[in-house]
Structure formats: C-alpha cells, structure tokens
Amino acid sequence: MTTALITGATAGIGAAFARRLAADGHDVVLVARDVKRLREQATELHDRHGVEAEVLAADLSEEKGIAAVEARLSDPRRPVDLLVNNAGFGNKGRFLEVSMADELKMLTVHCEAVLRLTSAAAGSMRERRRGGVVNVASVAAFVPRGTYGASKAWVVQFTQGAARDLAGTGVRLMALCPGFVRTEFHERAGMGTDNIPGWMWLDADKLVAAALADLDRGRTLSIPDPRYKALMGVVKLAPRGLLGGFSSRAGRKYGPK
Questions:
Q1: Which one of 26, 177, 232, 236 counts the least CB within 10 Å of its CB?
Q2: What is the DSSP string of 182-205?
Q3: How many CA atoms lie less than 13 Å away from 178 in the CB half-sphere?
Q4: Taking the mean position of all CA atoms in its chain, how far away is CA 150?
C-alpha cells in the first residue's frame, strides 16, 4: 500500500486531499500544528477507510517543525509515495502594514519549507524511481499580490523547474493553483469575503479530484477549473499596471487559496 504525506492536513484543501487519498486506499501521514484535530482526523480516516493514518504535529514556520517532516520523508523504512505541500496562510494588510516577522514567517512556510520538503521527498523517490509531489500554490501567483503572490509565484517556478530536472526519473512534480476555495483560509487571516462573486468559489473536494487527475496526466501546472483557466488566460493579456491596480484595491482584502 502506498503512503501520502499531506501538510496543512486538518482543514480546507489539505483535508480534502487526505479524504480523497484515504478513500483511494492510501495510508496517510497528516501534518499540522493542532494535535487534537490531527488525532480526530486520523481516527476518522482510519475508521472510515481502513487505512493507516499517522499523525505528525509540526509547525512549518519553525526549524524544528521543518526538520521533523524532512526526517519522516527521508526515512527509508517508511517510504512516502506522494507529498502534498499544502500548508500556508495569508496576511491581512498592505505592504508595510504587515509586520516583518509575519512576512518572513510566510516566506518560511511557503518557500523554505516547500523547498526542503520537496527535496527530501524527491531524493528518496528518485532512488525508488517513483513518486509524486504536489506543491499547492495559487492563481495569485500570476498577479501582483505582494509577499503572498510572490511566494506562490516562487512555488510555481520552483516546481516546474524541478520537474524538468527530474524528467525521466519516475518522480512527478506539479504546482497546483486554485482560486477561491471555501476553507478556513480567509477566516484565519481575518480577511473579508463578502465582495467575492459566488461563481468564483470552488469546492475543495472537486478541486482535489481535478488536481490528482492532472498529476496522473503528467502535468507540471494545474489550474483545476475552467472558470479560472479562462480567467488566467485574460490575465496573461492584461497590462501589468491594470493588474497591479486591481490587486491594490481588492487583493489585499482577500486572497485566493
């Protein structure tokens, strides 16, 4: 039986990945900060699907947390076949309104942790000549969106570059770029969502199903919804100044994830 490790597993997209992968018969390693929620989730997945559900409490904004997950991914006795780097958060406020500590924490979680965990997983996978990594980015990667958008743009570029470097090794890497998803993301960041049109909201379970299908197809970038694919096509043609103006007016109040 194969094993999947999911970071940010207790809510939103991460929880949807855990549900889908467990339902498909994969053992899961659930990574998040909240031990109580992790244990409840592990029990539910084990009881419902009969899979092994391991709990790993770790804060990926801290060295200790990243190192703990690195060690689990590198353990040759317990190989991980699929890594989902989903942990992330948003900051409310414009540039210079957010504290430097929070900006650096975001870069640690979105960039350093993704780099290190992808490296740990892919190194072991390359030796076995099989495995996959899904790095959750955002459609915010394609518009001027301050530190959040910049960090997600890094995730996309890093993932696609690493995928090219590992071509032919049996290791697949894909950047997943969702739009607005009904999760705890915005509430946790204190971001309002009243101004977001209803058509822009995505269902986490459907998003995960589309993402896993794209991974199976060997894609290195997944925008898993026709609405957002069309929207990103428009974004590519729009002047950068116009996108920047839209971001400054609206994007700071709420961000896709």
A1: 236
A2: SSSHHHHHT---TTS-GGGEE-HH
A3: 28
A4: 15
Please tell me the distance from the alpha carbon of residue 130 to that of residue 39, in angstroms, as a whole number.
29
Catalytic one among 148, 185, 228, 254?
148
CA-to-CA distance for 96 and 175, rounded, in angstroms?
29
Is the C-alpha dihedral spanning 214, 219, 221, 227 positive or negative? negative
Opening angle at CA 206, ends 179 and 83, nearest 5: 80
Place of tokens 């589309």: 210
Phi, psi at 73, each rounded to 5°: -70, -25
Across all residues in the chain, what is the average pLDDT?
A: 87
Q: Please choose, from the candidates 149, 169, 16, the residue with its C-alpha nearest in 3D space to the C-alpha of residue 84.
A: 16
CA distance linking residue 203 with residue 25, whole number of Å: 22
- Tell me the per-residue pLDDT of 18-63, one tens digit each, with 9 for 90 and over: 999 999 999 999 999 999 999 999 999 999 999 999 999 999 999 9
Q: How many CB atoms lie within 10 A of CB 250?
A: 12
Q: Please list, in sequence order, all residues whose beta carbon lies within 8 angstroms of the beta carbon of residue 97, skipping any fewer than 6 positions away.
A: none
pLDDT digits (tens, 9 = 90+) for 8-29: 999 999 999 999 999 999 999 9
